[in-house]
Known about the structure:
Helices cover 51% and strands 7% of the residues. By secondary structure, the protein is mainly α. The protein folds into two domains: 15-100, Tyrosine recombinase, N-terminal domain (DNA polymerase, domain 1, Orthogonal Bundle), CATH 1.10.150; 119-281, hpI Integrase, Chain A (Orthogonal Bundle), CATH 1.10.443.10. The chain is globular.
Amino acid sequence: MSTPLQPPIPKFLTLAQAADIWLARKVEQFKKPKTLECYRSYLRPLLAFFGDLRLRQIDVGSLVAYQTKRSKEAGPSSVNHEMNVLSQVLRLALCWGPLSDSYRPLDEPEWQKPNVFTPREQELIFSSTKDDPELELAEIAFTIMRNAGVSPSELRRARLRDVNLDSTPPTYHVASDATDFDVVPRLIPLNAEAQTAFRRAIERANKLGARYREQFLFPFRLGHGHYDPTRPASKSWLRHQTRVLRERTGIKHLHPHTWRHQLCTEMLEQGVPTENVIGVLGRVSENMLDAYKHSNLRAKQEALGMARANIIAFPGQRSAQ
Length: 321
């Protein structure tokens, strides 16, 4: 059933007023909670910059000014996502048409293989978290990400019901409400390290008040020593601990998401079939797959070359003249 056309909104509304209408319409389209959360995060810097500016007052100059200011705080991909949301809101008031020909998204850098950790760097990171209660959360979360391939955003939305340490094998279920809107939910078998980390996470969650299956494994922090287990950890749940570890270790590319890249890289380098890699990670970029497809082809080519160089003539086989 198609969605009925909705009338345009008045151009004299402020961006804040129009954004409320836009979000309400997105809710009506049954968008997933995480998608709506992303939309709200894109709107926050837009509303902070444009303030109470009316839709009809937003011009090309203000778009460029926003891009210039915002690019000092965020990467080009984030800025382009925010501008895309702004364009959707302006379309509701039929204000985007005159701007669309002049608007240019920011250039995004060409894709490069993500930085991953050397064995020495991994040892340094986990030795820095060991026996430090202030870094317990990072140690638990990083261990799970390292061994299960889940993203930080997926893990922070995990509920107690999603972890089954009594099954054979023990599993972690990435539920539909814990994933991005273009990621398929999946069931991940847990190795020994991941099992231990999840057990510690459950014990920690219990201490923080999460005891029911529907409550979150990593509860929302209200303040010092106070948590709400009915809400997932905030998007910045690992920011402070990551910054501390980056300073301690001197590893500049230390980010929570790097652990996902780490596991993906290792599986692809070892020749794990693409479908199995996607089955664990849920989503792998085409650039990543192409990069390792070519490297695996080169490895096969080199292996074949070595095999040909070592061919032994069978009895009766004519020697090359």
